[in-house]
Write a structure and sequence with these properties.
globular, 77% helix, mainly alpha, 211 residues
Length: 211
């Protein structure tokens, strides 16, 4: 998120595509997972399609500067974010040797909520955060986002991590920019450019190769 605030949407999303190859390396080193040659090609094709989508020159909301920081700091935050995602995938798969994805989702969310609550107390921000979260028009959209993106997203992602190689599952979870295209068209009236459509088709082709 900090990388997004410093660099803008396009560059931060590009950095986020580092998570699948990092997860593949960690899965190989820690879990001894070795995807097939075709799976590696499929991952490359899928990520190429995602990069084509997020590299669209007509992509809106690309202005950076929401938070003070140099490009180097933004890139470092983006890389560390992708690394943390990859580590989280590997740790989750190791932990799910004993529990199911639903229970693992509860543990992840409970720990995250506890850490954020303690952080707010230590920083003296609890009152300010509470007022912001309860401001008019904020709770309902955040509740919807938490249900879809956090609860269901984490549960389904953990199910994928448990059932298949982390490299493949992480590549599939990197498809968010592709799924955003039709949603933005329906809900925001954004036009789908030929480049974005080509990238989406390429990404879907790569996913077909994964299976």
């Amino acid at each position: 998120f900090r990388s997004l605030q410093i660099l803008g949407l396009r560059r931060s999303l590009t950095l986020s595509t580092l998570a699948p190859p990092l997860a593949a390396v960690l899965g190989w080193l820690v879990l001894d997972e070795r995807p097939s040659s075709l799976a590696w090609v499929g991952m490359a094709v899928t990520l190429g399609g995602v990069l084509l989508v997020i590299g669209d020159p007509r992509l809106k909301g690309d202005a950076a500067g929401h938070y003070p920081g140099s490009t180097a700091v933004g890139v470092l935050n983006g890389f560390l974010g992708s690394l943390c995602q990859a580590l989280g995938v590997v740790f989750s798969k190791k932990g799910m040797e004993a529990v199911e994805p639903l229970e693992a989702s509860f543990i992840r969310l409970a720990v995250a909520a506890g850490v954020v609550f303690l952080l707010a107390l230590l920083l003296g921000k609890l009152g300010d955060w509470r007022r912001l979260l309860l401001a008019p028009g904020v709770p309902a959209p955040l509740a919807g986002a938490a249900t879809c993106g956090t609860y269901l997203g984490i549960w389904l992602s953990l199910t994928a991590f448990k059932r298949t190689d982390v490299a493949v599952a992480t590549t599939l979870t990197a498809l968010s920019p592709v799924f955003v295209l039709p949603l933005a068209r329906v809900f925001l009236g954004s036009r789908i450019t030929p480049r974005a459509l080509a990238g989406a088709c390429l990404a879907v082709g790569g996913v077909a190769m994964l299976f």
